[in-house]
TrEMBL record:
Gene designation per UniProt: Armt1
One term under GO cellular component: nucleus
EC id: 2.1.1.-, 3.1.3.-
Full protein name: Sugar phosphate phosphatase
Organism placement in taxonomy: Eukaryota, Metazoa, Chordata, Craniata, Vertebrata
Entries under SUPFAM superfamilies matching the protein: AF1104-like (SSF111321)
Family, as annotated: Belongs to the damage-control phosphatase family. Sugar phosphate phosphatase III subfamily.
Keyword vocabulary terms for this entry: Hydrolase, Manganese, Metal-binding, Methyltransferase, Nickel, S-adenosyl-L-methionine, Transferase
Domain Damage-control phosphatase ARMT1-like metal-binding: 6-404
Reaction(s) catalysed (UniProt annotation): beta-D-fructose 1-phosphate + H2O = D-fructose + phosphate; L-glutamyl-[protein] + S-adenosyl-L-methionine = [protein]-L-glutamate 5-O-methyl ester + S-adenosyl-L-homocysteine; beta-D-fructose 6-phosphate = dihydroxyacetone + D-glyceraldehyde 3-phosphate
Species this chain originates from: Pelecanoides urinatrix
Length: 426
């Protein structure tokens, strides 16, 4: 399965890159922290080399030994996996659910640094994320320019035109999800050209397209909306870089078109899956745009900083997004987060990992309804914007998956297909 290929090939590659990154920053650690920095770097590298060896030789998954706030939850989850294995011995790298061991690897990478001050705040993936942003400059400029031109006469757009623009920006945000560094094991995955040019041609590759449902949900929320209650949209972010910019543009459009009054962004509290957005990435991206020497890029950055200051946009992270649990256990494991999401009118889940956690990462029949796969997770109406990079997909029409499979065996994992898949949470 694709899971086997990931554990066998991709994850060791990612660990090797992390070790290499630490090694390359040795002098910087020395300049900043003296011998202590170099010692910490050596310890972190030895911790990660051990981890890589455990992974490649299918050793049992070991409890976390750090004192970080989520360690107890991880260790409880390991016990849960032990009980699942029906006495087949310890859960190990090749004998455990893919979602669990993949998340576990990123948590161990975090521990390697967190346990080794003074380099404990170093994000081993930061360079790759920054590089992806800079290499996607042309696409970022094209998108910011398009959007700023659109804003000039957004007040004059009729309902049909607004709907068309929403669909366009949803698609840009969907295909922005192709820019994923954990998928390419850190190889270049930047967005080189303007995605707006090719949207028409990409429509046949959207296997489930529920954009109409999103439109009617937002329009009806607006109509029902009294003075007292704001229409709130939450975006559960995926990758930094070009994808994040496409999400920010979508969020700005929702507010500027008055389809929403506020947008809440949810990022990761620790570096995750190579290119996932952390608070630092979120703020850094807005700063980069602000200081860009391109008029429309800097206009976007300035406006977005303003949205955050005014509280129209809110950024938050929560430990739950970097736990191994799928979302059906959120109400139990993170009741505070679940209660917060219940206040939203619409949850937009970006990307493949969120899709895997929404559907429990199971090998479903393609035709199983999305609602069923969510396994009672329904804090609010939700939609997944996701390009397919793992072999889990539900909610297809009978024969649809088999038909694509016949001509394209890699269709579920190559990022070429996408879904805009909605559940009304009724």
């Amino acid at each position: 399965s694709f899971a086997y290929f990931t554990i066998k090939d991709r994850l060791p590659q990612i660990l090797t890159r992390v070790i290499d990154t630490l090694h390359r920053h040795k002098n910087e650690f020395f300049e900043e922290h003296g011998e202590k920095g170099v010692e910490a770097e050596k310890r972190a590298i030895s911790f990660l080399s051990k981890l890589r060896n455990e992974l490649q030789t299918d050793k049992p998954v070991t409890p976390l030994e750090d004192e970080l706030p989520d360690a107890a939850l991880w260790n409880e989850y390991l016990d849960y996996q032990r009980n699942l294995s029906n006495g087949n011995g310890e859960p190990s790298w090749f004998q455990s659910p893919w979602l669990y061991v993949e998340c576990y690897m990123y948590r161990r990478i975090h521990a390697a640094l967190a346990q080794n001050p003074p380099i404990d705040n170093f994000d081993v993936f930061k360079e790759g994320k920054a590089q992806n942003f800079f290499e996607s400059q042309e696409a970022v400029i094209a998108l910011c320019t398009y959007f700023q031109e659109l804003l000039k006469n957004i007040k004059d757009l009729d309902e049909k035109q607004l709907q068309e623009e929403l669909f366009k920006l949803l698609q840009v945000s969907l295909w922005g999800n192709k820019c994923d560094l954990s998928f390419s094991a850190g190889e270049d995955s930047s967005q080189k050209s303007s995605p707006l040019q090719s949207l028409e041609n990409m429509i046949p590759y959207i296997l489930v397209n529920d954009t109409e449902k999103l439109w009617s949900l937002l329009v009806n929320a607006k109509k029902r909306n009294t003075e007292k209650s704001n229409v709130r949209v939450d975006i559960i972010l995926d990758n930094a870089g070009f994808e994040l910019v496409s999400d920010l543009v979508l969020a700005d459009f929702l507010v500027s078109s008055k389809l929403a009054d506020e947008v809440h962004f949810h990022g990761k509290s620790i570096p995750w899956y190579v290119s996932d957005t952390t608070k630092h990435d979120f703020n850094w991206t807005i700063k980069q745009l602000q200081s860009a020497n391109h008029m429309w890029m800097s206009r976007c950055g300035i406006n977005w900083e303003g949205n955050l200051k005014k509280g129209v946009w809110v950024y938050r992270d929560h430990m739950f997004w970097t736990l191994p649990h799928d979302f059906s256990s959120m109400a139990e494991v993170a009741p505070d987060l679940y209660a917060d999401l219940q206040k939203s009118n619409l949850l937009l889940f970006k990307g493949d990992l969120n899709y895997r956690k929404l559907t429990g990462d199971r090998k479903w029949e393609y035709t199983v309804p999305f609602h069923q796969a969510l396994n009672k997770f329904c804090p609010a109406p939700l939609c997944s914007l996701r390009t397919l990079k793992s072999d889990t997909q539900v909610g297809l029409k009978p024969g649809q998956g088999e038909q694509i499979q016949a001509s394209e065996p890699e269709w579920m994992v190559n990022g070429k297909y996408g879904v805009v898949q909605f559940d009304a949470a009724l």
